[in-house]
Design goal:
By secondary structure, the protein is an all-alpha fold. It has 9 helices and no strands. Helix 7 packs antiparallel against helix 8. The longest helix is centred in the last third of the chain and has 47 residues. The structure holds fe (ii) ion (2 copies).
Length: 184
């Protein structure tokens, strides 16, 4: 699986713009857009094989999954929030990251790694139900893989912050109880 996965994806993973995703935090903790995208692609590849898709469709959905969050900006940044201020009401909601980044990622990915129609539509709809209903098997597989990986990453991030909080708070509590037992 690893060798097969590498052959299908090495041109994208090795591209400098894709490598930049390492710098973008995503689902909290130690997660980045790079880790999220590669894990989603691996998961989509496994699902596509489990559903017995033909080899070229396994390749198509794996590559689409790798590029599904290739929107190319930091949506936590002030600059992004500033651009949203140009819109009002419903138009603003439609421009919000959660609703719009699938279409943006598809447009940008297409410029660097030409996509076919199924891949484009899978990327556009990966945020279903916040995006249009997935229209084909590739789109459903990508939507499912993204959600499976995202929930795993969010739980890992909760664990990460809990451990960090414990490391900060427990020594202080330990120190206080130690002082109390000395003074007793
Ligand atoms: Fe996404
Ligand atoms: Fe995602």
């Amino acid at each position: 699986m690893d060798q097969f996965f590498e052959q299908m994806t090495e041109d994208i993973i090795g591209h400098p713009l894709f490598q930049q995703l390492r710098l973008c935090t995503h689902h909290g903790g130690e997660n980045s857009l790079y880790i999220h995208s590669v894990d989603t692609a691996r998961c989509a590849c496994r699902l596509a094989r489990r559903f017995h898709l033909k080899e070229e469709r396994v390749r198509a959905v794996t590559r689409a999954a790798l590029l599904h969050d290739f929107f190319g900006y930091d949506w936590h940044s002030d600059a992004y929030k500033q651009t949203l201020r140009h819109y009002r009401g419903w138009r603003r909601v439609k421009q919000m990251h959660a609703f719009a980044h699938g279409a943006r990622a598809a447009r940008r990915a297409d410029r660097f790694f030409p996509l076919d129609e199924r891949q484009r539509s899978a990327i556009v709809s990966h945020m279903f139900p916040l995006a249009p209903v997935p229209k084909n098997a590739e789109a459903w597989i990508l939507t499912l893989a993204d959600k499976v990986v995202a929930s795993r990453e969010v739980s890992a991030a909760v664990g990460f912050y809990m451990r960090r909080w414990c490391r900060k708070v427990l020594p202080a509590v330990h120190h206080r109880t130690e002082r109390r037992s000395w003074s007793a």
